[in-house]
Amino acid sequence: MNPQYLQQSTQQQFNSPPPNSYGTYGVSSSVHSTNSSQQQFRGSSQNTLAQPQIFPGSIQQTQVSTTGGQIPPSTLNVSQQLLQSQMAGMNINGQRIQSQQNSFPTGALKMPSSFPPVINGGSPPDLISPNQQFTSMQQLNTRPLASTLQSQFINGAPSTVEAKTGVSDVGKCDQSGSESGFTSQINTGSRFPLQTTFGQGFPSQSNLSQMNIASNGAGNAVQQSLSSGILPPTNLGSVFPSVSNNNLHNFPKQANIGSGFPPQPNSRQGLPPQHLSGYPPLPQQVYPPPQPNQPPGLYNQPGQYPQQQARKLDPDQMPSPMQVVLEDQKTKGGLFLTNQKGQVPPLVTTDFVVQDQGNASPRFLRSTMYNVPINHDMMKQAAVPFGLLISPMADVAEGEHNPPIVNMGEIGPIRCIRCKAYMSPFMQFIDGGRRFQCLFCKATTEVPDVYFQHLDHTGQRVDRYERPELVLGAYELIATKEYCRNDQLPKPPAYIFMIDVSYNNIKSGMVHVLCSNMKEILKLLPKEENESKTRMKVGFVTYNSSVHFYNIKACLAQPQMLVVGDVNDMFMPLLDGFLVDPEESSSVIDSLMEQIPEMFADTRETETILYPVIQAGMEALKASECAGKLFIFHSSLPIANAPGKLQNRDDRKLLGTDKEKSVLNPQCKEYNNLAQDCVSAGCSIDLFILNNSYIDLATLGQVCRLTGGEIFKYTYFQVNVDGERLIADVKHNVSRRTVFDAVMRVRTSTGVRPTDFFGHFFISNARDMELASIDCDKALAVEINHDDKLTEEEGVYIQVALLHTSCGGQRRIRILNLALKTCGQMADLFRTCELDTIVNFLSKQALYRLKEHAPKEVKDTLVNRCAMMLACYRKNCASPSSAGQLILPECMKLLPLYVSCMLKSDALSGGSDMTIDDRTFVMEAVNTMDIPSSVVYFYPRLIPIHDLDTSIDDIPQPIRCSVERLSEDGAYLLENGIHLFLWLGLNLSGEWLQAIFGVNNPAQVDTDSTKLPELDNPLSLKLRRLISIVRLQRHRYMRLTLVRQRDKMEMLLKHFLVEDRGIDGSSSYVDFLCHMHKEIRNILNIIS
Q1: Which CATH class is domain 494-737?
Q2: Locate the Sec23/Sec24 helical domain: which residues (predicted)?
Q3: CATH fold label, 416-471
Q4: Rounded to 5 degrees, what angle do the CA atoms 841, 1063, 150 make?
């Protein structure tokens, strides 16, 4: 959802020109004599080029015409004293808990005989050896912890469960509370639990929590014994539809295990019909209206009695991202050494400093798992995706170093003779250093004489610490001519600014603000390290229904304009003087920037082109024999009579339906084909869209997707509102670390191989990703699959090689290495999963599938996969417990929350309440997001700011994303990397308002403003500084939107409070967690 869209009624629109505005500006109808000097750029076509003539504004214009052409194991904060008081049978809050609930049919669920590991209905074989024994305390303590949420019914019947200290229901503890002497049953995978006595050091019960529920079957009253009140408000088995076993053995392709969300009725008594975005109501699912004391969204099955005095699950007891972030910062913050194979890195939200000791920094390369299952069957049963998230040009943190540059000289990079892997710490030198063995393919390769060095007594080269490629996980090699196009070393790349000067952009002020800031923008062009001056070139083009090139050669007194009117056969009319050194031609560029707004000030041109513009930029780079990027500032649907003309197919009602892919896919192939030509020329494209109406980003965005570019969007652009945001985005885009004309290949050791790729790139074969450019803000996802069985001893080795041209024109190869462990036990797998990487990978995979599948199928697959992961952990890793307990692995305790957030996100579930272009924009944004960006996008950061400490610069600790956290006397910042809101409570103190806004009442705050008043007091300075820090952490400049409590815009802010029930009827976090529990139980019933 876009705040600009909701505010469109108040925005000034420039979508209709003055009367009689259709015409051509500044294009001479006369045809001049042919200039033969231009023939070399046209081939067989005939050109006519005018003699330079002075044009209004002192620019020399030339007319060019042409013809032809567990709950985590999380903690529920139940104290030891409270648990012991329950064990002693003490009354808590009065009478002991009693409950009764009607039984419900669980359904006859049959397991397909092909589902692993059940064989024709028999018991599944043990994945952990029945003979396995815990021989040391160290082995025991590495076992994943589990925490539980106890429901009041087990398999449809009332039950009594007493909470114990320990890890399972059968654990016992002496009343002294000592940590020694615990006796419990540990599930080793056999059908008979192993009796084990734990010694000193066993985890205390503070890591565990259960809910104690007793039922005597004598009445309807339900009471809670825990004051925190985490009691399911109704029988979980009766809330959600039973799971289907259709095609379960084909997971993850199937989507029939569950519906993804609690079903919504077609109609409710006394309430209007509701419809989940993307979810048609399930047939023949009719539920009565909620009872007076029953939480909304949960309904009894027909024929069941309503529960009385039911209370809501306490969200405070659910796993919290803030708790996970703080724990990781405490345990993994500081120095992170990469010298261990399969070591799980800190979270991206943790402050840490990487010291490269053989594996690449997790800022460059992360895996969804660091212990890889040894075979495909185990991987399939676990349902955890094996993927890589690669940000090859990511920025390093303060205190870290960029990968060093290694020059091998004329011999070039040292590589394996068979698989062509590059030299790395994984290579083993043998035969006295004369050969090395590749750990990727096991082949041996002769060492060149100039690279030979003796080995020490450990078998290592004596010069290994002098050669980065032998000890570091990330480094760069200088490439030789064999790695360059046409065996020629590249020239420095170029940036070309292509500005739409049609009516909309002139009247909105975009052209003026961009030209007036161009001088500052060009000062930020990237340069090589240790160099004071950039080597990059720049060029300028304007366009409407024709294309205008500018000669800005340094020796000219004034810039010259050359106009190509025949856009059906685009060519490059100018070579010398088009791409220039920005410093040498600074005076000519300044003159051009002053005159462009004046030159087109009275334009009446409304129809624009785009395809010929991109073609012109590509031809310019090809003629100059260099790679580069096009910055295109475009305003409207290209409907002019020219190649690439598009039809208006705006029909937002299709969003969220099975037919949405018809408007989310391109309407023609012309832009896809053009993008492929651009990739071949090393031409990348960034689109800055300033539209007032439908522009068909699904089609135009293909040029960004395939060339490694990006889309920036400013709907209803107004210079006083969006001008600062536009300039900030352009400055960051120009200045960030970017490489050009790149090719990436991922190599793996034998037994696994890359199979699928997600992100912005073009892939011409099954192995290489071609990127016309890639920068520090983008990430690519790669899925890895088994093609053979692995061994537990060797591990999995991964090498990413990125061949590219630097901003200084040097051809290099960036090498990233990563070593992972292998495992034959599920517990080892679930102990080393990286959840943030899994979420990023699954979101990219889901968006890819949305282009070909119905949205409901894609969402159901996500839910089913989540349930399969947690059910596999429950079956194979968790301690024995009742079926009514929800048990989550420690590293995946937030998986249900993040899956719920993905399902609610605009990228996956945007419906008719947003435009098709907005939906495409967020989908493409997620496609390029790195992990830090996706973390905050799916779970926005909510920061309280009403009690800021002006003495420190740290960002206040975020709170949970729920409307219940918003206090009427508070103020909060909410940001997700794209939107930034400041929410003001109606009872906010007058002192705070006076310090920030200079008013005494929230009603007096101007919510249309996008800036805070610059008041000279510590609190105002602190808040403005805080907003600046938040913006700097994201690569898009977020416009500030002020939201007053109970105003219309509050509905938009609540859309991003992802723990609450969505305004479209989507489930809250608590509801989804209950539904996930039901799905897990159904799966376990099937496979048991």
Answers
A1: alpha beta
A2: 835-935
A3: SH3 type barrels. (2.30.30)
A4: 70
